[in-house]
Amino acid sequence: MITVISILAVLTLVTFFYMKHPKFGKAPEGSRLELIKKSSNYSDDRFQNINYTPDLTEGYSMGGIIYDQLFGNHPRRVPVDSIPSIKTNLLNLAPEADVLVWFGHSSYFMQLDGKRILVDPVFSGNASPLPGTVSAFKGANGYTVADLPEIDYLFISHDHYDHLDYETIIALKSKVKKVFCGLGVGAHFELWGYAPDKIIEKDWNETVVLEDGLKVHTTPARHFSGRGFTRNNTLWLSYVLETPNTKIYIGGDSGYDTHFAKIGEQFGPIDFAILENGQYNVAWEAIHMLPEQVVKAAKDLKAKRLFPVHSSKFKLAMHAWDEPLKELTERSKESNLPLVTPMIGEIVNLNDSTQVFKEWWKGVN
């Protein structure tokens, strides 16, 4: 018994001191916390979703899910082959080109009306605070911060490790002009050395008017947040980027809910919708959409084209690594919804609705 108690005490101390590492960020406090408390989306000391959002679907338990993760038969969760990719030189893009380049999972670069935009970058090769525990698939981590030009706007959807990567954010510091994020997330950036005047920290349903007719609308999502043991003390967002000529929806992570239809009614039609499709399971469908729900959300948004993300880089669910793309491709054909499925690094022309993409995951084991 003394030995067991001693081991538990040591583990507790190790955990306590490890949690002091700056990668875990900082909880909002002071004037930032007072601003958060005024949000209509904040009650009972945490941010709330629009509608009731259970952690797990009824009938499932966390113990059962952990057991299934460890001992269930779930083949092909990680590809044996290298993920195919293209290395586009982002430093030599034509300034007038409106393009997108995907880095796998939910990270991508956009050049829009001459502005350089980066979304949820994760270049460290790991989507967890514990090194080597959620490693990038072979071939899926070929880009680094050094490959990026100066970034006008860095957009962060929420503060989970597969969207807000400490190592990447630290390396990006000298390249980023402005950061867009949800309420409370700015505390992480200030801890990590970003100047307060670089951070644009917003609630849902706000609009920021930028130069050259670019508008950023912050919109809801159905998800959760947190980097340590405290959940939902920072806000998760989606965004609508609006220029004089186009509207792009940055979905972040979200379960299906009524907010998609409301965003579609307010801002639709959406020219280019970016929605998560991957790391899903019926057990947690309230916070991550199933493929059939992704199509429904795109329809609600009145999307002209759909770019699915949140797949092909990290193993965070039990499905086969290529199942999200296979399933969504079939459903998009049935619903006549144009799908954008580039390889990592492949240039997507944001103004060309006829651009054709290969089903690159076919033949990859």
Key structural traits:
single chain; 365 residues; alpha/beta; 7-stranded mixed beta sheet; 6-stranded mixed beta sheet; 8 helices
In short:
It is globular and about 70 Å long. Helix 6 links the parallel strand 12 and strand 13.
Give the CA-based shape: globular
- Distance, first to last CA: 48 Å
Q: Runs with pLDDT <50, length 5+? A: none
Q: How are the strands of the largest sheet arranged? A: 8-7-6-5-4-3-15
* Number of alpha- plus pi-helical segments: 8
* Share of helix, binned: 10-25%
Radius of gyration: 20 Å
Q: What does the average pLDDT come to?
A: 95
Beta-strand content estimate: 15-25%
User: What are the secondary-structure elements, in order, as H or E?
Assistant: HHEEHEEEEHEHEEEEEHEHEHE
Q: Which secondary-structure class do the elements indicate? A: alpha/beta
Please count the beta strands (DSSP E, at least 2 residues each): 15
Question: Can you summarize the main beta sheet?
Answer: 7 strands, mixed
